[in-house]
Structures are given as structure tokens and as C-alpha cells.
Design goal:
eight-stranded mixed β-sheet; seven-stranded mixed β-sheet; globular; binds 5'-O-(acetylsulfamoyl)adenosine
Length: 650
């Protein structure tokens, strides 16, 4: 208790932006940056008020921030706007009217493009269909769809009429959908017959049917035709959305939404208990997504921007849809898997569509490393100018590979730290300003007052590990957990007596003010009185040539409290053996010290991960301890992984 988290990993490389990148970047003058950054912290209402006025309002706001009911914030008080109006209508009177908003490629390879004018019309048609079926402002609508343009259209159509969207990732089970529909009180569902995934049509509508069986409250299931798979039909409840849309009017006035009206719910699994419906509102969320997308991805009119995240994840909300479209960007959307039909699929898409900004996850980057450089290098990547990562700490090995192999040492990398709850990026390099360091998310974004503190909320010293907190409210912050204000206060605001927002992550801040995220504090290991971050030991393991991915957990040990158990997947050309296990233990001891030496190394074909690629260490803890896994596994991507780790399939 009261112990700090020890930080033992050191990385000294640093990569300032090139002169060529800086010459065209949105911000490249350090003095201008310093002035803006200081203003954003010292006069946040001046800073955010000015940014907010860059977006179109249907009624101007009267006050920038009301923090009197802390921790329940109100931003842009009294203002009215509409998220679809911000993303679409504002561009229709500019040169962007006929610019591509969306470029979509299906897994089988077909391409569909929407200009801003076309996307606007498509959204209005959907909005009119929703309205005609009685969907009203404030009603919650669940979306369970593949990564097709109709998903983006449906999201924006909900926003247009003031309905609250709750996107459920297209791989979740019927039970997960049911829980989310029930908790959110959803009255309508938008789905598709099926979508393409790994060369096959994955049925979706049948899963929705199962989820809704015996459940009251859903009056309509809107179905988009995509997979062509056979589905059942419930007359009176089910309607073909695309057919009705074809007959609907392409004009639908945007509902004027209060800044603090809910825009969406997005469910995130807590480490315990049922999933939380994170609630985001209209004005502040849009301002946060808009500004961060603009500066972090340095968006310009000639970019083709590709965020590979699924829309079912917050990254897909803020950085596939709202942030880029509010900036008038051209967004690439891809339906399928990164290795279907071949492991170079992503790079084929980059070359074909001339992607200039690419935003993806460390888990994907590590897969590409494992599959081999040749699948990347055989495609032309000269269109790329900026790379981003999100979702987990990226180990320096993967960062360097991303830089050198994908980006040909030409592209800055932005390692962006944020959460479903934060709504927008909070800690990140600015690509024209920041000297990036492999493995560090570097500095807080505008208006973000991040700190590393001890148990009592006091800031710790340079390079000391501790809890990552945010000390000021920010526009895109969550406004609560749907239906459970007490849980909101308890989860995020109680640890430091209501003073700070607690992120749940451990971190350290280095001598240059750069933050190094050390992973979830729930995962922190306690070995012989030392509190160690999983990420640092995993990073040491992955720096060995044989290891592609690693997860380290503690298992109860009478002597040391916890003994370290490492699960590793190894690369092609290496084979699992007791000798390799010993070698890896020694490697960790040499890299970071004897105290971090794993007691056990287990080889695994794959690690249990969430849909967004995060390793589920709490499941591995049960396996390491030889316990039955009894936790919430609803977000697990591939159930067979657990069985294989337990050795059920001999
Ligand atoms: C955007 C997203 C949030 C958690 C967060 C961290 C981890 C995310 C980074 C990261 C290190 C990063 N939302 N995380 N980004 N850790 N470096 N750049 O992922 O709600 O799904 O997850 O993800 O632990 O608290 S999320």
C-alpha cells in the first residue's frame, strides 16, 4: 500500500520531425505552439471558446464551461448544433461539396465513393426513414453492422434526428447485444443481413434476432442488405432500410441539439461488473474530436486519411467519423480483415487509394511484423506522410519497425493516448512540433492537464511511476455512465477525493515532460515488494528476436507474493523449447534486472484479446493460477484461444 510503481525501462532514441514535414504542417513553430499550449491551460475558456466558434452553431453558446456541479461538466452552455450538420452541411457551401467524404472498399474488393453532397443526401434519406418509423429525439438506437458506408450513414442519421446511437461491435455475441440493448433502453436496432469477414459472409441479422428474442421494447429492426445471406423476417418489426431510403427525401433538417444533449452511448467493459454505457454529449465532444483530428493528424484537403479502427470502438467514432468529417477530410473505410485474401491487404489498399495518413493499433503492427516485411514492401507506400497508433503501449521494437519499414523513415509517428471516456486524444505528439520517442505518447494535448501522482494525489518525481490523472475538465470528457451516476463518480472521481479524473493507467513522466504509459494499474505486478508494470517486462521480452508478442501476469507465490508468468508467441523460424524459455528469462534479467525475471515462460499460439486488440491479462491471470476463468469474456475476440491456452485441445 502506498507503494509507487517502479519504472525500470529506459529508451533514449528521439526523432524530431523532418524539415520537409514541418514545412507543410499545421503547427510547426515552437513559439506559436508554446503560446497556444499555455493559453489552453491558463485560459481554457478563451482557448476552447475560440476553437468552438470554428464550428457551425444553430444557436451560439452563452458560456464555455460550467464546472459548478463537478464532476458533471457542461460545455458550451446554451449552444445548439447538430453533429451531422457539423460533419456535412457546413461543407456543402464550400469546395468540399464535391470532394470525397468516404472512400469505401469491401473485403471482396468493390469500391464505393461518396462526396460530401452525396453523403449528406444519403444521411438525410436514412434520417427520414427513421423518423417515419417513429424514432424520436432522445430515443436510443443500437447499431450492429459491418464496416460499410451504411454504418457511417446510420450513425449520422441518428445524430441528425437527435436519436442516441449505441454502436455494438459487429463481432459481439447475441448475449452481449441483449445486455447492451437492455441497459441502454434501445427501442430500435439497425443491422445488416451480414458482412464480409475473412472470405466469408458473417451473419448479423440472425444474431440480432437471437438477442431480441423475448425482449420487449424494440419496435423496429432496420436491415441493410449487404451479405445476401438468408435471413428470417419478423413482419411488423423488420424493415429493409435501403429500400425505404431509396424512396425517402434527400432533405432532412438537422434537429437543433443542446450542447449537452446526448450524442451517443458506447459500452466499455470494466475489469469487474457489467459493461458501462459511456455517455458523450454533442457540443464538447465535437469540439474535442474536431481539434484533435485537425492537429494530431495534421489534416489537409489533399489527404486520404485511413483510421483502421472499427466503428464499434471509440476510435471509430472520434477518428473515423466525427473528427475527420468535421474537418472536411476524405476518409477511407475498409470492411475486411487485414490478412484477407493475403497478408499484404492493408498495404495494397494504401498503394491503391494513395493513403497519406494511417492510424492503426500496436496489435496490428505486431501482426504485420510477424507476417514478414515482404508483404509490406512489395506495395508502394510513397503516398504515406504520417503514421499513428492507439490502443495500447507500443513497444519500441514495434515503433521502430513501423517507422522504418512502413514509413520508410520518412513519416512522423503519433502515439496517441486516450480512452473511450476521454472522447478525444489526450496525450500525443504533434507531428510538426514534437520530437517523438519510441514507446512514449509524449506530451499532453491542448487543454489537457495530465499528471503522474502517488496514492495521495501528490505529483511524483521525474521518471517515477505512479497513477495517471487529468486535473482539468476537457470538452470531450464523458458526462457519465448511462443510468448510473454513482458508478461514474466512484470509478473515475473517488480515488483522489473528487479532485482528479483517475484514468486507471500507470505512467511516468520523463525529464522532458514526456509521458510513458505503463498499462492498467489493475495489471500491476507485485514481486517481492516491488510494483512492476506488465508493459515494461513485455517490452523486454519482445525485444528478443524470437518473440512477437508477450503478456506477463502474476500468479500467487508464497515467497515473493507474486511470481511472474510470461505468455509469449514466437515468430516464424523459432520453435518453442525449454531452452528458449530459459533464454528468454535470462534476456529479461539482463535487459531490466533479476527482479523482473519470469518464474515461468509459456508458449502460446495466440493471446486472448479484445476486439480492439488489447490483451486480456485478467483472463491470463486465472490460467496462470490454474483457476477456472469465471470473468466477463463478452469482449473476447476468439474463444478458442482460451481453450488452447488451458490445454483443452491436446
Ligand atoms: C482509444 C482507446 C483505453 C486504454 C487506456 C490505456 C490504453 C490507449 C494508448 C494506451 C498506451 C497509448 N480507448 N491505451 N492508447 N496505452 N499508449 N497510445 O483505446 O477505452 O478502448 O482503451 O487503452 O490503457 O486507458 S479504450
Amino acid at each position: 500500500m502506498g507503494h509507487q510503481i517502479e519504472s525500470i525501462l529506459r529508451e533514449n532514441r528521439s526523432f524530431p520531425p523532418s524539415a520537409a514535414f514541418r514545412a507543410r504542417a499545421r503547427i510547426s513553430d515552437p513559439a506559436e505552439y508554446e503560446r497556444l499550449y499555455r493559453e489552453s491551460l491558463e485560459q481554457p475558456e478563451v482557448f476552447w471558446g475560440r476553437v468552438a466558434r470554428e464550428l457551425p452553431w444553430l444557436k451560439p453558446f452563452e458560456r464555455v464551461l460550467d464546472w459548478s456541479a463537478k464532476p458533471f461538466a457542461k460545455w458550451f452552455v446554451g449552444g445548439r448544433t447538430n453533429a451531422s450538420y457539423v460533419c456535412l452541411d457546413q461543407h456543402l457551401t464550400t469546395h468540399r461539396r464535391d470532394k470525397f467524404a468516404l472512400v469505401w472498399e469491401g473485403e471482396p474488393g468493390e469500391v464505393v465513393r461518396y462526396t460530401y453532397a452525396e453523403l449528406h443526401a444519403a444521411v438525410c434519406r436514412y434520417a427520414n426513414v427513421l423518423k417515419a418509423r417513429g424514432v424520436k429525439k432522445g430515443e436510443r438506437v443500437a447499431l450492429y453492422m459491418p464496416m460499410i458506408p451504411e454504418l457511417v450513414i446510420a450513425v449520422l442519421a441518428c445524430a441528425r434526428i437527435g436519436a442516441v446511437h449505441s454502436v455494438i461491435f459487429g463481432g459481439f455475441s447475441a448475449q452481449s447485444i441483449r445486455d447492451r440493448v437492455e441497459d441502454g433502453g434501445c427501442t430500435a436496432v439497425i443491422t445488416a443481413d451480414g458482412g464480409w469477414r475473412r472470405g466469408k459472409v458473417l451473419p448479423l441479422k440472425p444474431v440480432v434476432d437471437e438477442a431480441l428474442a423475448g425482449l420487449a421494447g424494440v419496435h423496429t429492426v432496420f436491415v441493410v442488405r449487404r451479405g445476401g445471406n438468408l435471413i428470417e423476417w419478423k413482419d411488423g418489426r423488420d424493415v429493409w432500410l435501403d429500400e425505404l431510403a431509396a424512396q425517402a427525401s434527400p432533405e432532412c433538417p438537422p434537429e437543433p441539439m443542446d450542447s449537452e444533449d446526448t450524442l451517443f452511448l458506447l459500452y466499455t467493459s470494466g475489469s469487474t461488473g457489467k459493461p458501462k454505457g459511456i455517455r458523450h454529449t454533442t457540443g464538447g465532444y465535437l469540439v474535442g474530436a474536431y481539434l484533435s483530428a485537425r492537429f494530431v493528424f495534421d489534416l489537409r484537403d489533399d489527404d486520404l486519411y485511413w483510421c483502421t479502427a472499427d466503428v464499434g470502438w471509440v476510435t471509430g467514432h472520434s477518428y473515423v467519423i466525427y473528427g475527420p468529417l468535421a474537418n472536411g477530410a476524405s476518409v477511407l473505410l475498409y470492411e475486411g480483415a487485414p490478412n484477407t485474401p493475403h497478408p499484404g491487404r492493408f498495404w495494397e489498399l494504401v498503394a491503391k487509394h494513395k493513403v497519406s495518413v494511417l492510424y492503426t493499433a500496436p496489435t496490428a503492427i505486431r501482426s504485420f511484423m510477424r507476417w514478414g516485411d515482404e508483404h509490406v514492401t512489395r506495395f508502394d507506400r510513397s503516398s504515406l506522410r504520417l503514421l499513428g497508433t492507439v490502443g495500447e503501449p507500443i513497444n519500441p521494437e514495434a515503433w521502430m519497425w513501423y517507422r522504418e519499414v512502413v514509413g520508410e523513415s520518412r513519416c512522423p509517428i503519433v502515439d496517441t493516448w486516450w480512452q473511450t471516456e476521454t472522447g478525444s486524444i489526450q496525450i500525443t505528439p504533434l507531428p510538426g512540433i514534437t520530437a517523438a520517442k519510441p514507446g512514449s505518447a509524449t506530451r499532453p494535448f491542448f487543454g489537457v492537464d495530465a499528471a503522474v501522482v502517488d496514492e495521495h494525489g501528490n505529483e511524483v518525481g521525474v521518471n517515477q511511476g505512479g497513477y495517471l490523472v487529468l486535473r482539468k475538465p476537457w470538452p470531450a470528457m464523458l458526462r457519465g455512465i448511462h443510468g448510473d451516476d454513482a458508478r461514474y463518480v466512484e470509478t473515475y472521481w473517488s480515488k483522489f477525493g473528487g479532485r482528479y479524473y483517475f484514468t486507471g493507467d500507470g505512467a511516468r513522466k520523463d525529464q522532458d515532460g514526456c509521458f510513458w504509459i505503463m498499462g492498467r494499474v489493475d495489471d500491476v505486478l507485485n514481486v517481492a515488494g516491488h510494483r512492476l508494470s506488465t508493459m515494461e517486462i513485455e517490452s523486454a521480452l519482445v525485444s528478443h528476436a524470437a518473440v512477437v508478442e508477450a503478456a506477463v501476469v502474476g500468479r500467487p507465490d508464497e515467497i515473493s507474493g507474486e511470481a511472474l508468468c510470461a505468455f509469449v508467441t514466437i515468430g516464424p523460424g523459432h520453435s518453442a523449447s525449454p531452452a528458449l524459455a530459459e533464454l528468454l528469462k535470462e534476456h529479461v534479467a539482463k535487459e531490466i534486472g533479476k527482479l523482473a525475471r519470469p518464474a515461468e515462460v509459456r508458449f502460446a499460439e495466440a493471446l486472448p484479446k479484445t476486439r480492439s486488440g488489447k490483451i486480456m491479462r485478467r483472463l491470463l491471470r486465472d490460467i496462470a493460477a490454474g483457476r477456472e476463468v469465471r470473468q466477463d469474456t463478452s469482449t473476447l475476440e476468439d474463444f478458442s484461444v482460451l481453450a488452447r491456452l488451458r490445454g483443452d485441445e491436446e
